[in-house]
Amino acid sequence: FFFGSLLVMICVDLMFEWLIDVRHQVATAEYVVVLSTFAFCLTFGVEFGIIAGIALHVALDKFGLDVGKGESLNEDGMAMANC
Q1: What Rg do the C-alpha atoms of the chain give, in angstroms?
Q2: Does pTM top 0.85 for this prediction?
Q3: Burial class (CB in 10 A: 0-12, 13-18, 19+), 15
């Protein structure tokens, strides 16, 4: 019982951190990719969900939307320019 509840606490914390807290640190289109990838993983399974998330990222990038260009983050969690 203890280990199961510990796993649930870790899962809830990670989901909150990656699905809720991150929305202020990324562009809107990038946040849509994050939420869509999560929904794809729940719907289609992990493998096809990740593939669908990558396909969505590439499609939005082709449309010229800001989906993140692999910027590195500083200590504050903010994107730094690649110079």
Answers
A1: 15
A2: no
A3: exposed
